[in-house]
Write a structure and sequence with these properties.
- By secondary structure, the protein is an alpha+beta fold.
- Helix content is 58%, strand content 15%.
- It contains five helices and two strands.
- The chain has helices at residues 2-13, 21-35, 45-54, 56-66, 71-86; strands at residues 87-94, 101-108.
- The chain has a two-stranded antiparallel ribbon.
- The radius of gyration is 23 Å and the shape is flat.
- The relative contact order is 0.07.
């Protein structure tokens, strides 16, 4: 009942259609199988924690709609931003040609 309420609430929150009870049951079974790493038929806290930390879709959802993220997600987003920052646009012109030709080249900074 709690999972059903959470799924329905999240769907309303992000303006998605609310699934019926059968779909919610399928989602919960798939989720359980995904998170129960040791197949013990129980989800331990460390299994749930590992799932949250390694699920970047969930991380991005939490950041977008709750303004919260884990430290691991902050590091991942920082690394993505650094990669973009490390790219440098270099403009190359060849004025010696009859027709001026210009190139824009992205190079990785050292």
């Amino acid at each position: 009942l709690t999972l059903q309420s959470v799924i329905r609430g999240l769907c309303r929150f992000v303006f998605l259609p609310v699934p019926n009870l059968q779909v919610i049951e399928e989602i919960s079974n798939d989720f359980f199988k995904l998170v129960d790493y040791d197949m013990s038929q129980r989800i331990e806290f460390d299994e749930f924690q590992a799932w949250v930390v390694n699920n970047f879709e969930l991380q991005d959802f939490l950041l977008k709609y709750a303004g919260a993220q884990t430290l691991d997600n902050a590091k991942r987003r920082m690394n993505q931003a650094l990669l973009v920052y490390m790219l440098s646009l270099i403009h190359i012109s060849e004025p010696t040609r009859l027709l001026s030709i210009s190139y824009a080249v992205f190079c990785l900074k050292k």
